[in-house]
């Protein structure tokens, strides 16, 4: 796998040479060049979490220090999306060395996990609620261990001092947001009716908590105090670990997690996967994240003139949609945990492969594209992976110009619906393919295996210029739609040169197989008609409605941030 350890000037020159379409210098500056505007910023899905991050930055903390505080508060105030019981990927840019590191806090399957654990006694896949609410859906949580590793390497403040806001808000109570209240009463999410969620979100009169009301979580406060004092050991060993194991062995459908599984968890860190895109370099975490797929999407678009066709044109969205379909076809076939299966990242991102595959974007849309045949690809069956639910993305830039782009998740809304220590346990293992082999016996890259990490769509991106200076941090939740959301955010910021807020607010278009999902009320009618004339029939929804994009971009006037208007976030800089 070609990875970049240090984005040296020499390497940038090489990347520049490899770049297919020479274009002028990017319309962006680095924070160091900022004159008047903000030079530090937090963009996240909840204002309380943003405040906690800004406070840490103002106290002299680094972007990673702030990430710890933001995650600790998000786990409390946005528990439908991420938390102490979940996992994450973080892409980290170090301003001093220009090095981009990928941190992998993805959950791991326990040693007792088996390829058939999401099948019933008749060998048929469990129903969605059966699988999610089971004790088998939870992987060993990795977000806190990952943050601890990153904070040891890039923190400036003491770990123990990063949890003050989370502890206070849990002890004293926080104002419940409309989105949390809606999900706590949701009949769509089976987890909201699970006993732990019902107990947590019910008031003494038996009704559910409403938006604007105050919710306390003393158990969460106790957990963060313990994590502040002991680090990730507080979760992965001792009484909280014992409580996790006990809760996962409860009916219905107990799981196999043991104390040894929890204790053995190790986050990973390594060079981010970086590829040139026009005058930029885009960095993401390697597999099993969604990063390689997003890079493939960009690599295909690089062979188009999408920059010349803006978001008000059918041609622009047509090119976007067709590249997306080719990207999804490959990723659905080939992505899995590279520790367990051969993932052909190098082949998928090979310039010759991308060039040939981009020729499949014809003048009009054809049937659903088949996966390609990149170098290093073994035979792979189409898998049966399902990914609905909750997740969140945030971006942080500190005064020194270091950047965190982190997507973090408990998988679905409130994870498995089971709670320990005031937080929800993830259902991340339902991100595995539910069927290990297809009818013809061909193995799925994303089949369940002991100690394996499930495939993810999360793809926190950091964009640099060819001198290795920060240009933008972008990412989104949204299950498999993340790839389409991130691609839209990147194209809108880099190619369409839109201000961040407008870029994130653009309609989503998620094109996968023969389905083109969008937000019809936001798409200009002329685009809808123009696309129809090219054989693209847009339908409303179909996975296009749930983005939660957050981004920060460097401009000559300082940082410019944005929060997806579809969620409750803000971007605050100073
Ligand atoms: O890792 C993944 O790709 C999924 N577990 C993410 C789920 C998600 O983004 C749901 N979002 N709203």
Quick rundown:
The chain has 574 residues and is an alpha+beta fold. It has helices at residues 9-18, 47-58, 63-77, 128-132, 143-154, 164-172, 178-184, 195-201, 218-230, 233-236, 238-248, 259-263, 291-301, 314-334, 345-348, 351-358, 482-495, 500-505, 525-533, and strands spanning 41-44, 87-94, 99-105, 174-175, 214-215, 268-271, 273-277, 280-284, 392-397, 403-409, 419-420, 423-424, 461-465, 470-475, 509-512, 515-518, 538-540, 550-555, 558-563, 570-573.
Helix fraction? 25-40%
**Number of helical regions:** 19
Shape verdict: globular
Biggest β-sheet strands, sense, barrel: 7 strands, antiparallel
Q: What's the N-to-C terminus distance?
A: 39 Å
Bound molecules: 6-diazenyl-5-OXO-L-norleucine
Structural class designation: alpha+beta
Low-pLDDT runs: 1-34, 384-389
Number of distinct beta strands: 20
> Strand percentage, roughly?
15-25%
Strand order of the largest sheet: 6-3-2-10-9-1-20
Radius of gyration: 22 Å
Residue-averaged pLDDT: 92
Account of the protein in words:
- There is one protein chain.
- The chain is of the alpha+beta class.
- Helix content is 32%, strand content 16%.
- It contains 19 helices and 20 strands.
- It has helices at 9-18, 47-58, 63-77, 128-132, 143-154, 164-172, 178-184, 195-201, 218-230, 233-236, 238-248, 259-263, 291-301, 314-334, 345-348, 351-358, 482-495, 500-505, 525-533; strands at 41-44, 87-94, 99-105, 174-175, 214-215, 268-271, 273-277, 280-284, 392-397, 403-409, 419-420, 423-424, 461-465, 470-475, 509-512, 515-518, 538-540, 550-555, 558-563, 570-573.
- The strands form five sheets. The protein has a seven-stranded antiparallel beta sheet, covered by helices on one side. Strands 7-8-13-14-18-19 form a six-stranded antiparallel beta sheet. A three-stranded mixed beta sheet has the order 15-16-17.
- Helix 2 (47-58) packs antiparallel against helix 3 (63-77), helix 13 runs antiparallel to helix 14 (314-334) and helix 14 (314-334) packs across helix 19 (525-533).
- The chain is globular and about 60 Å long.
- The two termini are 39 Å apart.
- The structure holds 6-diazenyl-5-OXO-L-norleucine.
- The site of 6-diazenyl-5-OXO-L-norleucine has 16 residues, from loops.
């Amino acid at each position: 796998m070609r990875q970049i350890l240090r984005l040296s000037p020499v390497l940038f020159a090489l990347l520049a040479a490899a770049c297919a379409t020479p274009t002028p210098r990017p319309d962006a500056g680095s924070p160091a060049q900022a004159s008047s505007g903000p030079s530090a910023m937090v963009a996240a899905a909840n204002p309380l979490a943003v405040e906690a991050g800004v406070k840490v930055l103002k106290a002299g903390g680094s972007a990673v220090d702030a990430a710890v505080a933001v995650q600790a508060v998000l786990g409390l105030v946005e528990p439908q999306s991420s938390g102490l019981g979940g996992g994450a990927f973080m892409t980290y840019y170090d301003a001093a060395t220009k090095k981009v590191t990928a941190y992998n806090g993805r959950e791991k399957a326990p040693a007792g996990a088996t390829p058939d654990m999401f099948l019933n006694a008749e060998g048929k896949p469990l129903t969605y609620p059966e699988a999610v609410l089971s004790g088998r859906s939870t992987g060993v949580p990795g977000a806190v261990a990952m943050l601890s590793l990153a904070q040891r390497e890039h923190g400036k403040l003491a770990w123990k001092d990063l949890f003050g806001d989370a502890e206070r808000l849990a002890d004293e109570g926080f104002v419940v947001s409309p989105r949390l209240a809606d999900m706590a009463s949701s009949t769509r999410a089976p987890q909201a009716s699970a006993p732990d969620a019902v107990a947590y979100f019910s008031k003494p009169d038996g009704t559910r908590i409403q938006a604007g009301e105050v919710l306390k979580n003393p158990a969460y406060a106790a957990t963060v105090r313990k994590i502040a004092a002991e680090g990730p050991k507080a979760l992965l060993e001792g009484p909280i670990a014992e409580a996790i194991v006990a809760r996962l062995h409860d009916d219905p459908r107990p799981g196999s997690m043991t104390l040894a599984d929890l204790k053995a968890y190790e986050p990973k860190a390594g060079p981010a996967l970086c590829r040139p895109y026009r005058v930029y370099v885009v960095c993401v975490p390697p597999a099993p994240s969604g990063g390689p797929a997003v890079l493939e999407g960009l690599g295909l678009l690089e062979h188009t003139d999408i920059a010349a066709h803006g978001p008000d044109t059918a041609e622009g969205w047509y090119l976007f949609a067709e590249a997306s379909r080719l990207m999804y076809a490959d990723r659905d076939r080939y992505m899995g945990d590279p520790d367990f299966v051969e993932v052909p990242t190098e082949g998928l991102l090979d310039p010759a492969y991308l060039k040939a595959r981009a020729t499949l974007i014809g003048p009009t849309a054809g049937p659903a594209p088949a996966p390609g045949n990149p170098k290093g690809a073994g035979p792979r069956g189409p898998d049966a992976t399902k990914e609905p639910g909750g997740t969140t993305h945030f971006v942080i830039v500190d005064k020194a110009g270091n950047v965190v782009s982190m997507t973090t998740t408990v998988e679905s809304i409130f994870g498995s619906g089971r709670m320990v220590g005031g937080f929800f346990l993830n259902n991340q293992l339902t991100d595995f393919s539910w069927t290990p082999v297809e009818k013809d016996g061909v193995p799925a890259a994303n089949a369940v295996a002991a100690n394996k990490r499930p495939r993810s769509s999360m793809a926190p991106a950091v964009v640099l210029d060819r001198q290795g200076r920060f240009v933008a941090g972008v990412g989104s939740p949204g299950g498999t739609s993340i790839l389409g959301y991130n691609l839209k955010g990147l194209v809108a910021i880099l190619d369409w040169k839109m201000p961040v807020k407008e870029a994130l607010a653009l309609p989503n278009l998620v094109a996968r197989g023969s389905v083109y999902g969008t937000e019809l009320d936001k798409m200009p009618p002329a685009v809808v008609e123009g696309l129809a004339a090219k054989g693209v029939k847009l339908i409303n929804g179909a996975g296009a409605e749930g983005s939660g994009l957050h981004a920060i971009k460097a401009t000559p006037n300082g940082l410019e941030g944005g929060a997806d208007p579809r969620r409750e976030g803000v971007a605050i800089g100073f």
